[in-house]
Design a protein that fits this description.
Number of helices of chain A: 12
GO molecular function (chain A): 4 iron, 4 sulfur cluster binding; metal ion binding; oxidoreductase activity
CATH class of the largest domain in chain B: Alpha Beta
Bound molecules: flavin-adenine dinucleotide
CATH topology of the largest domain in chain A: FAD/NAD(P)-binding domain
Number of helices of chain B: 13
Protein name (chain A): FAD dependent oxidoreductase
CATH architecture of the largest domain in chain B: 3-Layer(bba) Sandwich
Shape of chain A: globular
Pfam families (chain A): FAD_oxidored
Helix content of chain B: 25-40%
CATH topology of the largest domain in chain B: FAD/NAD(P)-binding domain
CATH architecture of the largest domain in chain A: 3-Layer(bba) Sandwich
Largest interface: A-B, 62 and 60 residues
Radius of gyration of chain A: 22 Å
Helix content of chain A: 25-40%
InterPro entries (chain A): FAD/NAD-bd_sf (IPR036188), HdrA-like (IPR039650)
CATH class of the largest domain in chain A: Alpha Beta
Number of domains of chain B: 2
Radius of gyration of chain B: 21 Å
CATH superfamily of the largest domain in chain B: FAD/NAD(P)-binding domain
Number of domains of chain A: 2
Keywords (chain A): 4Fe-4S, Iron, Iron-sulfur, Metal-binding, Oxidoreductase
Structural class of chain A: alpha+beta
Oligomer: heterodimer
Distance between the termini of chain B: 54 Å
Strand content of chain B: 15-25%
């Protein structure tokens, strides 16, 4: 714990190494920028490490809306025996299911392999800005001491707005005033019998979120395809007889929003399970999540016991992994040049695509929603981009985070190279280069 | 991130939630102290979550030398179906094998029962001192900075960050830039244990066996006993034909051993301890981060080697890596006393011991280098409180791999069973020190007899073993 401040000079600084951050860092480096990425955690990957299914990659009608970095990641996973699969939930979405353990290896290889300079275990302490509100970099803290990282462009991919929330007028007000946030602790289980589970789901679909999209109006046909697919992907909502009966006073389950499962590894017959959660005060998340650490782990015990007794296919199943960290929903969103909502003008040059969770419609994301209001030299990527409430569930999808990360990384590299400002960047040139590098800006079948 | 400073106070603050820290925090809280456990990372348990076995719980003879906190933790693992067993490697050590994923739940249960308060994702970055005391520490996290004061501070940070911040002297590695390697532990599932053990029997020249002269059995008998034990706990050695050939051919990177440890019989899963990058100062974050690609290369290289060359692994699948890079050696705080390597090797007993160690001196180097020196007679040695009290700081104690020891002694006392025993000792000492409502407790003044009595009452093992 020294007091000296180390000085690091870089073209592009990426804060946060989740889906958005690694995508941004790799893209910027491949486009010639010197890139530094910092992450407070001991492992790159952020929420990718939970093993959750990737939304925002394949639309419900089967069209691809994501490419470039995501393809490299999936290929990387393949190399490490993580066989990804496109899976339909026979409700509203197509997802890509990924093995998070293979992803750890693939991400490491991609990030280091593209020449990015990496600081793990390193958190942002202060943001460095000038009188005009331009961000010049950050001061970070780790065991070696403090470092001033000066960058031509900084990308906030922290999923918490740790950079932009320190600026004035850069945060959307509604998020700030939410009183509580939800904290989740996900897990993985292995040894489930998918056949038995899918059989039950097809017999009693009312216990599950299934067939809500009009695409599945021929119910018996859809259910038989669902069984044929053979993949354990399901959501048990809180209203279902299965859950509602087990929650509430005297019930054995804590108050859950849902139990969601999706495959992570066919080799290990392993699934991702999202269920354990708790509400905490929004103004002291670190303390509150810590206070609930043991409680969330206890919930996991209860949920495993419940699944083993109540769902066919789980009788032999057991814990395979507890996620490496708790995760937060809610919180603060950037206020950008454009605050995207469901009515955002599709005419603006689009730099990434997303897909609506509720309506399965494809939409475009304009560059303006990555440009943080009132500041220059700063981009936001990932779950906190400038979107109104109506779009946030869609823009925070893992796939969409990769897409906005890729766009931010490329924009940053181009700006660092030209020496111009982010706002004067030619959006059409950005689009062209993104597409040249595999980015999907028009949905393809 | 605001600039306002939040303030909180506790009787006891523990920094670092690895094997030593969770034991310390549990002991302090269950002995009545208002205790806060802080870790910079997102999880508690440290290397207990990586899949390596807990060493140092028993001596070579198979006598338990650690109890108390450890017993409770293993009970929880058993209750959660995450306990595999205690095994002799018929080389030199007894190991306790648990499922590292269940361990996360077990650690949470233990801390919850004791009423320990927890603060994660929080980095201790400054220490406020006053003469020979630490008054407070400053902790940095997303919500800002918190100034935390306490009667006593227990440094279980592995690196001795708090003690060093308070001005403690320290030694680092061999003092000339050599450090034990950092390692990425990984796991493989779907291992055919019977086939593996059959291979062990047929090609026993690949196994490390019988390294402690106390073992009277012949190599052949050791092998039989290992096979009879029936669990995939074994060490492949670099100078056995299988590894030697592969290393020579460039098919496997040079490493001393491949340690195979069962972690879950249900998942038929083992952990492998073998990757290594030596001589990195792990307190240099940039250098530590930069080892990742090499470690990952080695992970993949070794899992391919296992599948290709080691019977029983043909159909095994890569099942994941540890949550973080494993660190064996950084700083050793200079304490009131220094644990002496010769005493360790000679299994020296003392009347003022507050924890026991029994692991061989185990100093990994680069490539195939590793120093392994057995403890005399397969016995154990005693660690006095003075090795856990940084010189000149009256309300700080250390436990875990930053203890006060020479490099050789450190090579033994760093293992997790011993870390837990040390942690329990300083946690209990801190609780006793804050018993009397003294606003300025001094850890060195805790009556030794009271501390030992309390530890023994609570299951610690201090006497009566070899
Ligand atoms: C419970 C839950 C369920 C979800 N389910 C789905 C789903 O089924 N499908 C889907 O597509 N999406 C889902 N999402 C959304 C999706 O997981 C996330 O929005 C997305 O992964 C976020 O990616 P990111 O890169 O923006 O951030 P993250 O993956 O959160 O990465 C942020 C990184 O920044 C680091 N960091 C943060 N602050 C700092 C700092 N100050 N200094 C240094 N480093 C810092 C963190 O350590 C972390 O590694 C879900 C989200 C939650 C919470
Ligand atoms: C690859 C490998 C294999 C090993 N094999 C075995 C084995 O088979 N059996 C065995 O028993 N032992 C083994 N060991 C040794 C043993 O695992 C470690 O020595 C032991 O776990 C150290 O525990 P600890 O509690 O002292 O420190 P750590 O586990 O290192 O914990 C320190 C904690 O402090 C936190 N921390 C550090 N600095 C700060 C700060 N400034 N602020 C807040 N928090 C901080 C860290 O995040 C960390 O969680 C092995 C070690 C390695 C690396």
């Amino acid at each position: 714990m020294g007091n000296a401040i180390w000085d690091i000079d870089t073209d592009v600084l990426v804060v946060g190494g989740g889906a958005a951050g690694v995508s941004a860092a790799v893209t910027a480096a491949r486009n010639g920028a010197r890139v530094t990425i910092v992450d407070g955690a001991p492992m790159l990957g952020g929420e990718l490490l939970t093993g959750r299914p990737v939304d925002g990659a394949i639309a419900l009608d089967g069209r691809r809306i994501l490419g470039g970095f995501a393809d490299d990641l999936l290929r990387g996973c393949e190399k490490f025996d993580g066989r990804s699969a496109v899976v339909c939930d026979f409700d509203r979405r197509n997802v890509i299911c990924m093995d998070p353990e293979a992803a750890k290896l693939a991400l490491t290889e991609l990030v280091f392999g593209s020449g990015v300079s990496v600081l793990m275990y390193t958190a942002v302490d202060q943001v460095v800005k000038d009188d005009e509100g331009r961000v010049h970099g950050v001061i970070v803290r780790n065991k070696r001491g403090r470092s001033l990282i000066r960058a031509k462009v900084t990308i906030d991919a922290s999923a918490e707005g740790d950079v932009f929330t320190t600026l004035s007028n850069a945060v959307q007000e509604d998020g700030v005033y939410a009183d509580t946030r939800k904290v989740d602790l996900t897990m993985r289980m292995s040894g489930i019998d998918a056949g038995a589970l899918l059989a039950r789901a097809s017999e009693t679909p009312s216990n599950f979120s299934l067939l809500r999209h009009t695409r599945f109006s021929d119910r018996s046909d859809a259910l038989s395809k669902f069984r044929e697919q053979g993949v354990p992907i399901l959501k048990v909502p809180r209203e279902s007889p299965l859950l509602s009966g087990a929650m509430g006073p005297g019930g054995r389950l804590p108050d859950l929003e849902a139990i969601e499962i999706a495959p992570t590894s066919a080799l290990r017959r392993e699934i991702y399970v999202r269920a354990a959660n708790v509400q905490v005060p929004a103004d002291r998340t670190v303390e509150a999540a810590s206070d609930n650490y043991t409680g969330l782990h206890a919930q996991i015990e209860t949920i495993i016991a419940f699944l083993r007794e109540s769902l066919p296919g789980f009788s032999e199943a057991g814990l395979a992994a507890v996620a490496p960290q708790v995760e937060f929903s809610g919180g603060r969103y950037a206020k950008g040049d454009v605050v995207m909502d469901t009515a955002t003008d599709a005419g603006a040059p689009v730099i990434a695509l997303g897909c609506g969770v509720a309506d399965a419609e494809i939409f475009g994301i304009p560059f303006g929603s990555l440009l943080v209001n009132g500041t220059d030299c700063l981009l936001v990527a990932g779950s906190r981009i400038s979107a109104a409430q109506s779009r946030r569930a869609d823009t925070r999808a893992v796939g969409t985070c990769m897409a906005t990360g890729q766009a931010a990384g490329l924009a940053a590299a181009m700006t660092a190279e030209s020496g111009g400002s982010l706002r004067s960047l030619d959006a059409h040139a950005l689009r062209k280069r993104l597409m040249d590098q595999g980015g999907v800006l028009e949905a393809t079948s | 991130m605001t600039s306002a400073l939040t303030i909180r106070h506790h009787d006891v603050v523990v920094v670092g939630g690895g094997a030593a820290g969770i034991a310390a925090a549990h002991a302090a809280a269950s002995n009545g102290a208002d205790t806060l456990l802080i870790d910079a990372g997102p999880m508690l348990g440290g290397e207990l979550l990586s899949g390596i076995p807990i060493d140092g719980c028993l001596n070579t003879r198979g006598e338990w030398i650690v109890g108390g906190f450890l017993d409770g933790l293993l009970e929880e693992c058993k209750a959660l179906d995450g306990f595999v067993g205690a095994f002799f490697d018929w080389r030199t050590i007894w190991v306790v094998c648990c499922d590292p994923e269940t361990m996360k739940l077990a650690v949470a249960r233990q801390l919850d029962k004791a009423g320990t308060k927890i603060l994660l994702n929080s980095f201790v970055d400054e220490v406020v001192t006053d003469g020979g005391r630490v008054k407070a520490i400053s902790v940095l996290n997303r919500n800002g900075r918190t100034l935390i004061s306490a009667g006593t501070f227990l440094d279980c940070s592995g690196d001795g960050d708090l003690a060093v911040g308070a001005g403690a002297e320290f030694l680092s590695g061999d003092g000339k830039g050599a450090y034990q390697p950092v390692t990425m532990v990984f796991r493989m599932a779907g291992v055919d244990s019977d086939r593996l053990m059959q291979f062990a029997e047929e090609e026993e020249e690949n196994l490390a066996l019988r390294e402690n002269p106390w073992i009277k059995e012949t190599r052949e008998e050791c092998l039989r006993a290992l096979i009879k034990q029936g669990y995939p706990k074994l060490f492949l050695k670099a100078d056995g034909p299988l590894m030697a050939k592969s290393i020579e051919a460039g098919e496997l990177y040079p490493t001393a051993l491949i340690g195979v440890t069962p972690v879950s019989m249900r998942r038929r899963e083992v952990a492998l301890n073998t990757t290594r990058v030596a001589n990195v100062d792990a307190t240099d974050t940039r250098a530590l981060s930069a080892t990742m690609p090499q470690l990952i290369d080695q992970v993949w290289n070794c899992q391919s080697f296992m599948r290709k060359r080691v019977p029983g692994f043909e159909n095994a699948a890569f099942a994941g890596i540890a949550p973080r890079i494993g660190i064996r050696e950084t700083r050793r705080i200079v304490g009131e006393e220094t644990l002496d390597g010769d005493d360790v090797l000679a299994a020296v007993k003392r009347t003022d011991g507050i924890a026991k160690g029994g692991h061989h001196v185990d100093i990994h180097g680069g490539g195939t280098d590793q120093v392994r020196k057995p403890i005399r007679d397969g016995g154990s040695y005693d660690i006095p409180l003075g090795c856990l009290l940084p010189k000149g700081i009256e309300n700080v104690a250390v436990a875990g791999r930053c203890l006060s020891a020479d490099r050789q002694a450190h090579g033994s006392a760093r293992v997790m069973g011993t870390c837990m025993a040390m942690g329990q000792a300083i946690g209990t000492a801190a609780a006793i020190a804050s018993d009397g409502n003294d606003p300025h407790p001094v850890l060195g003044e805790v009556p030794l007899s009271r501390l030992r009595e309390r530890l023994l009452d609570q299951g610690a093992i201090l006497d009566g073993t070899h």
